[in-house]
Amino acid sequence: MQKIAELVKKASNLMDVIAGWGIAAIMALVVVNVLLRVFFNSPILGVYEYVGYLTAGVIAFSIAYCALQNAHIAIEFIFEKIPFKIRRII
User: Fold this and answer.
1) Distance (Å, whole) CA 23 – CA 84
2) Which of 33, 42, 63, 89 could form a disulfide with 47 if both were Cys (CB 3.0 to 4.6 A apart)?
3) What is the pLDDT of residues 30-41, one digit of tens each?
4) pTM score > 0.85 for this model?
5) DSSP per residue over 77-89, as a string?
């Protein structure tokens, strides 16, 4: 079981690195698109779709790492507003 956990940890770390490179690619694509549009009046066609696909990939690749780090966004402030009796049931 320990080997499987180690394998999952290594795979999630690798996917997190890939997600980081995806974010860098998104930034580079947007900057190049803006520069081409401003200086040459010729933007990259379909850049919004590329950014959308890359963003979906970044999210997909980073979910496993977030789960291992227990770094998901918490909504405790909503949970604290619920009355105690209902919280106990939940």
Assistant:
1) 41
2) 33
3) 999 999 999 999
4) no
5) HHHHHS-HHHHHH
Nearest residue to 29 (alpha-carbon basis) of 37, 39, 18, 19: 37
The Cα–Cα gap between 36 and 50 comes to: 16
> How many CA within 13 A on the CB side of residue 85?
0
Tally Cβ neighbours within 10 Å of residue 40: 8
Count how many Cα atoms sit within 13 Å of the Cα of residue 76 in the half-sphere of its side chain. Answer: 3
Distance CA 65, CA 87 (A): 29
- CB burial string 61-88: b at 16+ within 10 A, e below: bbebbeeeeeeeeeeeeeeeeeeeeeee
At 68, the amino acid letter reads: L
For residues 58-65, average pLDDT:
91
